[in-house]
Amino acid sequence: MSIITIEHLTKEFRLGQLQGLGGSIRHQLGRLAGRRAPPPPMFRALDDVSFTIEAGEVVGIIGHNGAGKSTLLKLISNITAPSAGRIRIAGRVAPLIEVGAGFVPELTGRENVYLNGAILGLSRREVDRQFDDIVEFAEMAPFIDTPVKRYSSGMKVKLAFAVATSVEAEILIVDEVLAVGDLAFQRKCFDRMESFIKHRGHTVLLVSHNIRQVVRMCDRVMMLDQGRVVADGEPLQVAERFYAQSNKKIQDHQLDAARLNGKVRSSGEIDLLEVGLVDAAGVAIDQVRSGDPLRVRVRLELNQALPDPEIVVGTHTTDFFYLTAGSTATLEHPPQLRLGVNEIDCLIPSFPMVAGTYCVRLAVFDGSGRMVLAGETLAVFQVTPPADEAHRPPLRNLHLPTAWVVNEQSFEERG
Amino acid sequence: MAVMRELLAYRELMVTLAWKNILVRYKQAYLGLSWAVLKPLLMMLIFSVVKAFVGIETGGMPYPILAFAALMPWIFFQESASEGVNSVVGNASLIRKIYFPREIFPITATLTKLAELFISFFILAGLMIFYQVAPTWQVVWVPLIIFYTLIVSLVFSLVGSAINVYYRDVGVAIPVLLQIAMYISPVIYPLALVQSRLLEDQAAGSLSEMLYFIYTLNPLAGIIDAFQRTMLYGQSPDLSSLWPGMLVTVVLLPISYRFFKAAETRFADVI
């Protein structure tokens, strides 16, 4: 017997404004008179979703904004009713959706702990028993008798999280609550959630945009897209798929925006024919994996002789933070360019940036250092995460290989 | 029955929410809870002044205490109805985030007003001592009368609060409607006056009996009369003025509950 069974679940929302009373009456009268009004436009937030969850499973739900994650949680926690399909739940559901929804600014922290506890289904006695724990965890002891309206937003969230995670229920529903407070408190929340999940044997549904967190905490991950379950299974694989989709989306968006910014200033001596990425075989590409070689190919046409030129190829972020730059001036024997078309490849053996969108810039100077040609955002490319991204620590911008020596024994990274 | 059991399971939440309502209302008010009794007291004073001009037959009972005893159940009904109607919309943030039976909001609104009604009893006791009106054992009816009033206001606020989610017109219209309802209820004047005009004087001719019946279809007519009788006059409630209103309530309660439950499924989408 599964603890949650979802069968052909569909949820539609009516688009646009609710009709006023007058419009509604006219509509009903029209129906009585046999006229058929056009059906209102509907938005399908969930489209024929079916799955089961067994007791004790920790299931992550990921997907882009508007994929239907929150709608699914709302349906499971009985906040809203499905348009079609069935939900069967064998157990008590405790929704930790958006902590602090029930906080009343006029009341003190203490009063709010009791109120919020009651809303989440804790009895007064249970709150009594856990009160000290809650306050201590939230680090709120000095402020507990101050009205919540005087709290900072971080304080509110901390207290709310502490109350929410003291609930006992068979099924926990967690929607983005982990992203609370400062870094130190986030860490604490994360540990608390983890012990909550791992040690008490609850069934947990977790929605988050923090994919690494989801992968780490869940045994199973579902990916939603436009109201459908598009992937369901082993966390790392689903996460990988999500990254791929995510990057595609960002890229489509940012490429368009970045291309508009591409500008070349030229003295007229050189024409820029082409800038782009190629792979080892010379085929044009627009994405590389983090840590893999990056090869930028430039094709220039010289209209007049340009002795001893200096060519600079660099990369920058979409918001013009300059990252790398390589110059032919540092070469032992700088190359010369010939009249007509030249093809130049600049190769970085391992491009170290983490996943994201990056751009190529180019500059050419003549022998005396006068700028002949310069441009930014001449090509836009995507860096995809390395295969083992889920194991990587989250806070970094550069993807550099590291080696370790522990007790005089050397350790290398996985191939 | 299942409904009662579910409500019982949520009793603690209801009590906590009612306690919250009271705390929030009076937290930053210097006069605090005394506001709850100030309203009936002031209205009693105004009514007494009006009475001095128009003359209302009170049958020997001092008018201020008669008016106060009418205002207690009336204000309890009026406030719990208007709070109840706005209670669902007022808790929109909770409704969008978490599930519990939504009828808890109108019920809690009524419970909150029950606490304020309780305080008014001290004022009534003071007035009874002042005017030397002694209570009799008939006051045992009072809890029942209050319970009946509670049900009546629930019938009203269940329907009102559900419609209010879809059309906020209701929330705006309610104060006006309740104002009108006060004049067609025996608040300013006692029910005995209506009885004597219609039943004894036959003021509306052959329609008089019919008009009186229609008048008592309003549950508040019977409630206010019964409250005054049992508290002040030491008489038992007058069934003849109670039953039409009771009939209306018994018929409407299940209908309004079903209406509320049917509307409830889409609250979170619409609110």
How do you describe this structure in short?
Chain B: This is Transport permease protein. The complex is a heterodimer of chains A (415) and B (271). Chain A has eight helices and 21 strands.
In DSSP terms, counting alpha (H) and pi (I) runs of 4 or more, how many helices of chain B?
13
Strand content of the residues of chain A, in percent? 25-35%
Number of strands of chain A: 21
Assign an overall shape of chain B. globular
- State the secondary-structure class of chain B: mainly alpha
The protein's oligomeric status is: heterodimer
Morphology of chain A: globular
Main β sheet profile of chain B: none
Number of domains of chain A: 2
Number of strands of chain B: 0
Descriptive notes:
- The complex is a heterodimer of chains A (415) and B (271).
- With 415 residues, chain A is α+β, with helices and mostly antiparallel strands.
- Chain A has 2 domains: 2-248, 3-Layer(aba) Sandwich (Rossmann fold); 263-384, Distorted Sandwich (Coagulation Factor XIII, Chain A, domain 1), CATH 2.70.50.60.
- Chain A has 8 helices and 21 strands.
- The longest helix of chain A has 27 residues, at 235-261.
- Chain A is globular and about 85 Å long.
- The two termini of chain A are 43 Å apart.
- The model of chain A has no long low-confidence stretch (mean pLDDT 81).
- With 271 residues, chain B is an all-alpha fold.
- Chain B has one domain.
- Chain B has 13 helices and no strands.
- In chain B, helix 3 (34-54) packs across helix 6 and helix 10 packs across helix 12.
- At the A-B interface, strand 5 and helix 3 of A face helix 2, helix 5 and helix 13 of B.
